[in-house]
Amino acid sequence: MDRSPLYVEFEEHQGALVLVPRGVLDSLTYGDLRSLVLKAAVDEPRAVIVDVDRLVVPDPSAYSLFSSLCTQLAQWPGVPLLVAAGDERRRAGITDYRLARYLPVHESVETALASAHRPPVRRLARRVLPNSMVSASLSRQYVRDLCLDWEVVSCVESAVLITNELVENTLLHTYCAPSLRLELRRGLLTVAVYDDDPALAEPVRPDTGHAGRGGLALVADLSVTWGCSRTLAGGKVVWAVLRA
């Protein structure tokens, strides 16, 4: 079966990233659009706005894509997802499908921007690490010191362990220098490690004869939620969220 054509333009408006998809949204392109929205959110713009006026949607159930994305982006990176539809009949059709229960549909990109609330107060720190195994110890100490400085002592040990696993994962499985990012917002601490390798990180089935758990299995055990997303630059970010 031939793939349905779908093209997406990116525009920046007042710190928000606007996606303008053109073509057909169906079972063949659903995953492509989902991936592009997630990539757009990784760099944490003020908001991600999807202008759906140029989309052809044969089955209205495809609009559920945006409600599921809204839930996912609320977990991380905390970027609001907004939908704009200038055509009144299209807005009514989306609302009839009850998408608006989870995600209001705005008349224009401008009204969507106006509805984007000021982001909550947050603390943010970044550090680019060398492409060397010394980065593991550097990152552990950096995270420990930062957690103490931010007074989030309840999760410091988990944050250090997660950081160690993510940094070592980059060093062992790619040829890239890891970049570490920590964010504290709304009582949640996010640890994220970026690299330039496009291959997504996946958990490895643990050896039943090996005591203990490590790698991404340990990350999953210690965090509220975690994930891996590609970036618009072509690399990826692996992130984990902890209660602070």
From TrEMBL:
Residue intervals of the STAS domain: 6-116
Gene source species: Actinophytocola xanthii
Protein name as annotated: STAS domain-containing protein
Cross-referenced Pfam families: STAS
InterPro entries found in the cross-reference section: Anti-sigma-factor_SerPK (IPR050267), HATPase_C_sf (IPR036890), STAS_dom (IPR002645), STAS_dom_sf (IPR036513)
CDD domains reported for this sequence: HATPase_RsbW-like
Taxonomy, superkingdom: Bacteria
PROSITE patterns: STAS
